[in-house]
Specification:
Blueprint lengths: L3 E4 L5 E5 L4 E2 L6 H21 L6 E7 L5 H13 L2 E8 L6 H6 L2 H4 L6 H9 L5 E5 L2 E7 L11 E6 L13 H10 E9 L4 H9 L3 E6 L6 E6 L1
Helix pairs in contact: 1-2, 6-7
Length: 227
C-alpha cells in the first residue's frame, strides 16, 4: 500500500495512505489531536483523578503504535508530571520505515530536540521485548492483532488509536472493546478520537461508562470510557 509523509494543519507531520484516503493522525493537526485526545482527556485526566504521590507508576496500552507520536508526547508529559510510565504499544502491521521516521518532525514541532534520541529509540528498540529508555519510561512494542491481547487488569489507560471504522470496522466492535475492558484496571480509562454512535454503544455494551467530550480540531466530539 502506498504511503506518504504529509504536513497537517498545525505544522506537524503524519503518514497518509492514499488508497484508503486515511491518515495516521488528523489532517487538522497531528500534535493537536494527540494532546487533546490522549494527553488532556487520558493521561492528565487519570492523573488528576487517581494519582496521589510523586513517582507513581502508570501503565498505558496504545492500540496502534503507528508513528510513535503518542508515546513520545506521553514521555514528555510524564516527565513534567513526575510519573513512571510503563508503556505498551500494539501494532499488527509493518512498522514505519527508517525513511518515514526521518521525515517525521515531532521533536522540532514539540520543541523537544534535546529528546530526539528518545523518539528515535522508540522505533529502534526490538519488538516484543521490554526496554527502559530512561529510569522513568519503559516501553514494549508488541507485534500482534488487537484481538490477540490477553491482558487482564493490567493497564490504567488505553489510548485507542486504531484506523477509523470507515476503513477497518472490525477494530471497533463489542468483541474488541470487551478485550479492552478486561485489560483495564478498575477505574482505568480508555480514550479515543472516535465519536460514532455505534462505537459508543459497543463500549457501553461491554461495561464502560462512556462520556462524550469536546473533540480535537476538526471533530465535534470524542469518547472516553471508564471501567
Amino acid at each position: 500500500m502506498k504511503r506518504e509523509v504529509v504536513i497537517t494543519a498545525d505544522g506537524s507531520s503524519t503518514i497518509h495512505l492514499p488508497d484508503w484516503d486515511e491518515q495516521y493522525h488528523s489532517k487538522h493537526g497531528a500534535i493537536q489531536e494527540a494532546y487533546h485526545v490522549f494527553i488532556k482527556h487520558g493521561l492528565q485526566y487519570f492523573y488528576s483523578e487517581n494519582i496521589k504521590t510523586e513517582g507513581e507508576e502508570v501503565a498505558i496500552l496504545e492500540i496502534g503504535f503507528g508513528t510513535g507520536l503518542n508515546a513520545f508526547i506521553t514521555f514528555l508529559e510524564a516527565d513534567k508530571l513526575k510519573l513512571k510510565i510503563d508503556y505498551v504499544g500494539v501494532e499488527a502491521y509493518p512498522p514505519v520505515s527508517t525513511e518515514e521516521i526521518r521525515l517525521l518532525n515531532y521533536a522540532k514541532e514539540l520543541k523537544a530536540e534535546n529528546n530526539e534520541s528518545v523518539f528515535k529509540a522508540l522505533h529502534d528498540v526490538a519488538w516484543n521485548e521490554k526496554h527502559a529508555l530512561t529510569p522513568s519510561f519503559s516501553i514494549e512494542k508488541q507485534k500482534k492483532f488487537f484481538a490477540e491481547i490477553e491482558d487482564e487488569q493490567a493497564f490504567d489507560i488505553i489510548y485507542f488509536d486504531a484506523f477509523g471504522a470507515r476503513v477497518q470496522p472490525e477494530l471497533w466492535t463489542e468483541s474488541v472493546f470487551k478485550t479492552m475492558y478486561k485489560a483495564l484496571k478498575t477505574s482505568g480509562v480508555l480514550v479515543t478520537y472516535a465519536a460514532k454512535g455505534s462505537v459508543r454503544r459497543a463500549m457501553q455494551a461491554v461495561g464502560f461508562t462512556v462520556e462524550r467530550l469536546e473533540g480535537p480540531p476538526g471533530k465535534r466530539e470524542m469518547l472516553r470510557g471508564t471501567k
